[in-house]
Design goal:
This protein has 2 domains: 188 residues, 3-Layer(aba) Sandwich (Rossmann fold), CATH 3.40.50.2000; 171 residues, 3-Layer(aba) Sandwich (Rossmann fold). The protein has a 7-stranded parallel sheet, with helices on both faces. A 6-stranded parallel sheet has the order 10-9-8-11-12-13, sandwiched between helices. The mean pLDDT is 93. It starts with a strand and ends in a 6-residue tail after the last helix. By secondary structure, the protein is an alpha/beta fold. 42% of the residues lie in helices and 16% in strands.
């Protein structure tokens, strides 16, 4: 199968969950035998030498906002179809690529089905104007969790019958790494008990609540350290808030984390924490679980689908710092419990959340959609 996939980005060093999903899924689809015509802006980076990837460059620099994509992409898609006769048009983002894909098919009468991918909805009045129309115009929508599907149905009033749930994968390189002290030495953590947050420092990650919770943890366990790994727009404010709470060196900020360093950060931790208010899946939680860590997470978004409470970690309400503090203290004080939860998480990811499993199911859906299209079944 040949697939056309216009893109906003698949940077090898991206901290975006959406770009990570695209990069890894497209890599595995190609390994399964699909040929990918990937359309990127002129200066955007991508993994090199991936078999079955064909990179096509747009005549613009970085960035591809949806109004620009609507004007720029349709003739590019038409040209690619004339050159390659691709079988399926793939939409990686309902907002950024979806309108352009629908316009290209309608304007140029392209005989190809459209499959759209989705992660989660952020609040916007445009959701009903753009996302809903793209869903209704796509032959199938693939989303990464039952939460994300439910969000689409409830927020947009679309039917669930053509929305497929295919959970994300976690790369097998995320595995336990005993004895790796790289990050502990880098940040002067010594042998202190370490709770790790890794991700973007942005509002929906709910990190001000985490600092409030950590104030309670630090009172009971002054030897413990909270390592906040990652960069983002809230970093300066979070640093100021940590100082205002009197946390001093009990909270360590790493700054931006390179993709190649992530496993070492998980190896430095005893517990992983994510108080996020909204996750379509929860990549870093899954990566931490794959590395054999116990987790304490919010019960919001898709995290309850990933984490089994009482078996691999604890689920807490995202507006209750005392709940997070109590569960973190419980795990910090119980090595046997940490080991048991971590082993459960490692096995759970191995059984249910590997990319090979996800890409096989996505490919099956593409094949089903293409077969239906050839039989004359179109999006309603």
């Amino acid at each position: 199968m040949r697939i056309c996939s216009p893109h906003c980005g698949i940077d090898p060093e991206s901290a975006s969950g959406g770009e990570t999903y695209e990069r890894e899924l497209l890599r595995h689809l190609a390994a399964d035998g699909a040929v990918l015509d990937i359309v990127l802006a002129r200066h955007q980076r991508h993994p090199e030498n991936v078999p079955n990837w064909v990179i096509h460059r747009l005549p613009i620099g970085r960035g591809l906002r949806w109004p620009v994509a609507m004007a720029l992409l349709p003739p590019v898609i038409r040209r690619l179809h004339a050159e390659t006769r691709f079988d399926l048009l793939r939409v990686h983002s309902l907002r950024f690529i979806g309108p352009a894909a629908l316009i290209a098919r309608r304007r140029y009468r392209l005989d190809v089905p459209i499959v759209s991918h989705h992660h989660h909805l952020d609040p916007s009045w445009l959701n009903r104007v753009i996302e809903r129309r793209v869903i209704e115009g796509s032959e199938r929508v693939i989303t990464v969790s039952r939460f994300s599907r439910r969000q689409l149905v409830e927020a947009l009033g679309v039917g669930a019958d053509r929305i497929e749930v295919v959970p994300n994968g976690v790369d097998a390189r995320f595995s336990p790494r005993a004895g790796d002290r790289t990050i502990r030495d880098r940040h002067g953590l010594g042998s202190a008990p370490v709770v790790l947050f890794l991700g973007g420092l942005k509002p929906r990650k709910n990190l001000f609540l985490l600092l409030e919770a950590w104030r309670e943890v630090a009172r009971a366990r002054p030897d413990a350290r909270l390592l906040i790994a990652g960069g983002g727009p809230l970093e300066a404010r979070l640093r100021r808030r940590a100082r205002a709470l009197g946390l001093g060196d009990r909270v360590v900020f790493s700054g931006r984390v390179a993709e190649g360093d992530k496993v070492a950060y998980y190896a430095a931790a005893d517990v992983f924490v994510s108080p996020s208010r909204l996750e379509g899946f929860g990549f870093t939680v899954g990566e931490a679980m794959s590395c054999g860590l116990p987790v304490v997470v919010s019960d919001a978004g898709a995290l309850p689908e990933l984490v089994v409470g009482g078996e691999g970690g604890f689920l807490c309400r995202p507006d209750r710092p005392p709940e997070f503090a109590a569960r973190l203290l419980q795990l910090l004080g119980a090595g046997d419990l940490r080991r048991r939860f971590g082993a459960f998480n490692r096995e759970r990811v191995e059984r249910q959340f590997r990319w090979e499993r996800a890409s096989r199911r996505v490919m099956e859906i593409y094949e089903e959609v293409l077969a239906e299209w050839k039989r004359g079944l179109r999006a309603r």
